[in-house]
Amino acid sequence: MNCTKEELLLYAVTDRSWLHGRTLKEQVKEALDGGVTFLQLREKQIDSELFLQEAQELKELCKQYQVPFVINDDVELALKVDADGVHVGQSDMEAGDVRKKLGKDKIIGVSAQTVEQAVMAEKHGADYLGVGAVFPTSSKDDAQEVDYETLKAICQAVQIPVIAIGGINAQNVDRLKGSGICGVAVISAIFAQEDIKEAAKELKNRTKEVTGI
């Protein structure tokens, strides 16, 4: 396995929606100062040259903090900047195909909504699973919701770490207690907050209580 449960405790996913004239790097640095343990660069509307530059900058920043850095969906870009890995959705690419391209030492995360998808992803070489949306979310218009029982069943069905994603914040994270997750992935709960560092710190402490990690 290429990443530990501890590294997946507080997994931040970037979003340009809340930059308000600041750079993504500045915001990510604040999040890392607040205790983020894993970072995913996710960009949907940005030209490839800027994406490449951003990926290189954030990779270097994460390296300074010794935090794993993965890129959402883009396997070619991950290879180009030598990121720690990628995160892929069900419709992007089979984990097995990604593994062939990236090699055995890189981190591969896969989104899953059902036990069947989770077991298949593990079988094909995924290192961890992102399961959700566990709560309603505005970050993904097409996000299907995954109830607590399904989340728990997924955690029990696989050996690899599972993180919950979707609508999680410091106020509702305790509702995931006992599910078997080792961490949470968030976007707005960190990056939409006025004090990013403080928001990350609070969420990390609450997630520790939930996971016991």
TrEMBL record:
Q: Which Gene3D superfamilies match?
A: Aldolase class I
The free-text cofactor remark is: Binds 1 Mg(2+) ion per subunit.
Domain of life of the organism in this record?
A: Bacteria
The UniProt record lists the EC number as 2.5.1.3
- Catalytic activity reported: 2-(2-carboxy-4-methylthiazol-5-yl)ethyl phosphate + 4-amino-2-methyl-5-(diphosphooxymethyl)pyrimidine + 2 H(+) = thiamine phosphate + CO2 + diphosphate; 4-methyl-5-(2-phosphooxyethyl)-thiazole + 4-amino-2-methyl-5-(diphosphooxymethyl)pyrimidine + H(+) = thiamine phosphate + diphosphate; 2-[(2R,5Z)-2-carboxy-4-methylthiazol-5(2H)-ylidene]ethyl phosphate + 4-amino-2-methyl-5-(diphosphooxymethyl)pyrimidine + 2 H(+) = thiamine phosphate + CO2 + diphosphate
- What residues bind 2-[(2R,5Z)-2-carboxy-4-methylthiazol-5(2H)-ylidene]ethyl phosphate, as annotated? T137, S138, S139, G167, I187, S188
Which residues of this UniProt protein bind Mg(2+)?
A: D73, D92
Task: State the function annotated in the UniProt record.
Answer: Condenses 4-methyl-5-(beta-hydroxyethyl)thiazole monophosphate (THZ-P) and 2-methyl-4-amino-5-hydroxymethyl pyrimidine pyrophosphate (HMP-PP) to form thiamine monophosphate (TMP).
Give the protein name, as stated in the record: Thiamine-phosphate synthase
What is the species of this protein? Maccoyibacter intestinihominis
